[in-house]
Amino acid sequence: xxxxxxxxxxxxxxxxxxxxxxxxxxxxxxxxxxxxxxxxxxxxxxxxxxxxxxxxxxxxxxxxxxxxxxxxxxxxxxxxxxxxxxxxxxxxxxxxxxxxxxxxxxxxxxxxxxxxxxxxxxxxxxxxxxxxxxxxxxxxxxxxxxxxxxxxxxxxxxxxxxxxxxxxxxxxxxxxxxxxxxxxxxxxxxxxx
Length: 193
Prior knowledge:
It contains 6 helices and 6 strands; from the N terminus they run H-E-E-H-E-E-E-E-H-H-H-H. With about 190 residues, it is of the alpha+beta class. The strands form 2 sheets. It has a 4-stranded mixed β-sheet with strand order 1-5-4-2, with helices on one face. A two-stranded antiparallel ribbon has the order 3-6. Strand 4 (about 85) and strand 5 (about 95) form a beta hairpin. The radius of gyration is 19 Å and the shape is globular.
């Protein structure tokens, strides 16, 4: 329980500053190595909002929270399945279960930003390069042509759902790299000394 309590404290530093997002907090006098006591937190599972008028705002809040976690804080809730995501009657999202959190160093944040940018620009080579920087592929020499071809197929499959209103973003607009550089300057993550 000590591990999850530590993760909850860490994530509270990240999430408490965000409007529309909350989490249960550790009740300090009662949490021990063997017992985790937290705020009572109950709401409606996020999947119940699918297709409702509240869904777009909840989706924006969740996306904003993850952009902040991944690119700003460098630490993120690593288990965001529907059973860990609730919403309250007042519209706030609540994240649960902090047994697993992830940490991204500045180079990983920049590479992840590059991957998002490459996906949005329909740039298979950029996706492959970012994947290499993130360590998604083995360190040995990668046969680029076959990987780029497969990534093109994946991007083409994603395209109908992912196209921006006026087509893909311009190739290498630099927006995600600039965001990553600006936010990565806050490293180390806010949770660790």
